[in-house]
């Protein structure tokens, strides 16, 4: 039975490879037929394999301008692998092609959350991050509603900030804030960029404003706690983490970071000296 399943897997890989070759030859319908056969033969538990086949099939449908089918294929691919960036990119392209710019925006926002740099010291944008920023720029030009523009500006600013382009990020956060001056989550992200640039007074002023607007928003309170910790204001950090826990008792990160702040506070007072 293991030999049979191995043979089946090899057969599916072969079909997918043949589909890729047909795609390279721009024989999109033939590629679709091969991907469809691979999908039909696949084990339902082979989530990554199915996601790839469906994502590739969707790309063929985009080339044939069958955007509705492409969207359906991408959605099915994402049901197997929710973090499959190519499926999100292709679905965003298909949504944009049928003028569903709001859905395209949502997919781009999802992508930014997946591809944020895991290593904060790696400050050069990857090709993937650069492509997403270019897509965001294109959508910014196409979208007419100010609220949607704000969301895109915030996501692009977050990418720029984490790739080390802090001054560009600060400018975009300011633009987003002009669109929605009372959005506490824009203020928090803007404050984080100021903190990254060691502009503590500006960061704290924005966090004060965010807390004044949303005094019981656990995300806002948690970020203020993080900011205090970064400034070695451990007692203030503990106070904000306590507020988070009071608002959201299931916010486990707040318990964890409060514990770390307590340890840092005790260490600053010399409790661990030998």
TrEMBL record:
SUPFAM superfamilies the UniProt entry points to: TPR-like
Entry GO terms, CC: mitochondrial outer membrane
Cell location: Mitochondrion outer membrane
Predominant subcellular localization, coarse grouping: mitochondrion
GO biological process terms held by the UniProt record: protein import into mitochondrial matrix; protein insertion into mitochondrial inner membrane
Molecular function, one GO term: protein transmembrane transporter activity
Matching Gene3D superfamilies: Tetratricopeptide repeat domain
Membrane topology, from the record: Single-pass membrane protein
Record's protein name: Uncharacterized protein
Entry keywords, A to Z: Membrane, Mitochondrion, Mitochondrion outer membrane, Repeat, TPR repeat, Transmembrane, Transmembrane helix
First and last residues of every TPR repeat: 218-251
